[in-house]
Amino acid sequence: MSNxxxxxxxxxSLVNLGSLQTPFISAHRVxxxxxxRVWMARPREQDSFASTDGLAFLSVVSAPESKIDGMLITxxxxxxxxxxxxxxxYTRVNIDQADLHHHDExxxxxxxxxxxxxxxxxxxxxxxxxxxxxxxxxxxLHHFGIEGLKNFFDTTMNFDLDILEDRDNPLYPRATQLTHxxxxxxxxxxxxx
Length: 193
Hints:
By secondary structure, the protein is of the alpha/beta class. 21% of the residues lie in helices and 34% in strands. It has one domain (5-187): Roll (Hypothetical upf0131 protein ytfp). The protein starts with a strand and ends in a 6-residue tail after the last helix.
């Protein structure tokens, strides 16, 4: 691969390749050591789509003993401005190659990173948007199977937040279409209260 290529680790909606907005080069299943996913409160002044007050979004926090699954996506460096705009609530953080376990082809690029948000604590009234969660769950189901979907729930903090049911009228701008089987499978996963 060219030195002008980059690789970024998707751990939320970026796991669902149908949600990507740039013509990526390739995508590879990996496990990243040292991080946990967490639902955080979306800051109101930086909302990127309508009606998002009180909604949660996914980020990661440092957790040296933890591991999370995701997709390592290779792309052209020229896509960085578009990626940064999409991930405007996040900062790029470099990934150490030693922290990546590749499930398929071993990809090594000089510029590898993930997006990490500033910490926005999620108050009790914060809700997880169903249409956003569907996108993430569909990505994990497609790439990691039902066990990967279970692992997504097990390795994500703050899943005790309520869910805002918007599947029939999605608020998330990159909402996905679910098959009947996906709909039933996803409905069977309920966060532990």
